[in-house]
């Protein structure tokens, strides 16, 4: 796992200082760090533990409970395909196969260039517009294999800028 460098440690400190050192700020702090770095490193967990005066194990437990927080570095674009029954009935499997084909990875993996991570997620509230997926925080609904190709191509172009 990559170590946190001095610059990142300064960014981490800046994030922590935006919050009062109170236990109820744990989730907002974790969310901010996850957004900034793409994951929450062991070093970050130790810094948070010291700042909030809570055990590292408790922090790790919160991270492992929430699907959108991670202890592993993910891609710049995290694609989360809804796996609920309504998306399943609307053709989720075709979308999943097309995503794997276009990205060259399986679900649970990240591309070698660090651009894309592919995950399943529980309901994203688009049951009447399935199959649906999230790319980071943006929702894509009524997906077709052709639409997936367009979305992935657009993301690849954006990633090259």
UniProtKB/TrEMBL annotation:
Annotated positions binding [2Fe-2S] cluster: 82, 87, 123, 127
Keyword annotations from UniProtKB, A to Z: 2Fe-2S, Iron, Iron-sulfur, Metal-binding
Cited InterPro entries: NADP_DH_HndA-like, NuoE-like, NuoE_dom, NuoE_N, Thioredoxin-like_sf
The record's free-text note on cofactor binding: Binds 1 [2Fe-2S] cluster.
Cofactors, names only: [2Fe-2S] cluster
MF (Gene Ontology): 2 iron, 2 sulfur cluster binding; metal ion binding; oxidoreductase activity
Name used for this protein in its record: [Fe] hydrogenase small subunit
One matching Pfam family: 2Fe-2S_thioredx
Organismal lineage: Bacteria, Pseudomonadati, Acidobacteriota, Holophagae, Thermotomaculales
UniProt family annotation: Belongs to the complex I 24 kDa subunit family.
């Amino acid at each position: 796992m990559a170590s946190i460098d001095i610059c990142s440690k300064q960014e981490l400190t800046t994030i922590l200082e935006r919050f009062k050192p109170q236990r109820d700020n744990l989730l907002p702090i974790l969310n901010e760090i996850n957004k900034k770095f793409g994951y929450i490193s062991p070093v970050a967990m130790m810094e948070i533990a010291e700042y909030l005066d809570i055990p590292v194990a408790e922090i790790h437990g919160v991270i492992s409970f929430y699907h959108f927080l991670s202890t592993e570095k993910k891609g710049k674009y995290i694609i989360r395909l809804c796996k609920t029954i309504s998306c399943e009935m609307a053709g989720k499997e075709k979308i999943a196969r097309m995503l794997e084909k276009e990205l060259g990875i399986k679900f649970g993996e990240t591309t070698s260039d660090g651009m894309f991570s592919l995950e399943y997620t529980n309901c994203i509230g688009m049951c009447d517009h399935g199959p649906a997926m999230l790319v980071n925080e943006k929702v894509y609904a009524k997906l077709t294999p052709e639409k997936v190709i367009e979305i992935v191509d657009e993301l690849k172009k954006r990633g090259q800028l």
